[in-house]
Amino acid sequence: MGLTSEDKKAVLDSWAKMSGPTFQDAGEKVFLLLLKTDSTKALFPKFRDIPYDQLAGHPDVRDHGGKVMQVLDDFIKGLDNGGDGAVQKVGLLHKGVGVTHDNINLMKPVLMTLLGELGCSSAAGAWENLWARFMDVHRTCY
């Protein structure tokens, strides 16, 4: 499903809250939610051996989270003109290291949780549509 102008506005408004104050800060929040379960944490070799209580503030978590937030930012801000390229680039990278679509889709509930925590639950439908598009573009690289 495509995004309506209302969806785009809801995504952009909530993204402004989700992505700050820096991409590294926001990415750390996302990854701390994502890595709560051992089975998900095991998918990330560079985080696998770091105890969960030591992940907050860890430079690798902040760096990787910041990169993920940058891809999402490029995708969101380029919805009307070229944002798919950021997703295609990361899709090829994921394919090369054996990351599956199911692994990538683990990000969706984390983003939805963060939306709720930030008081942006009303944007959930728009994010459902955004994530469907993100995954459609990601799949084209496999």
Automatic annotation (TrEMBL):
Keywords: Heme, Iron, Metal-binding, Oxygen transport, Transport. PROSITE patterns: GLOBIN. Pfam families: Globin. InterPro entries: Globin, Globin-like_OT, Globin-like_sf, Globin/Proto, Mb-like_M. GO terms for molecular function: heme binding; metal ion binding; oxygen binding; oxygen carrier activity. SUPFAM superfamilies: Globin-like. It comes from the Eukaryota. Residues 2-142 form the Globin domain. Belongs to the globin family. This is Globin. It comes from Branchiostoma floridae (Florida lancelet). The gene is lGb15.
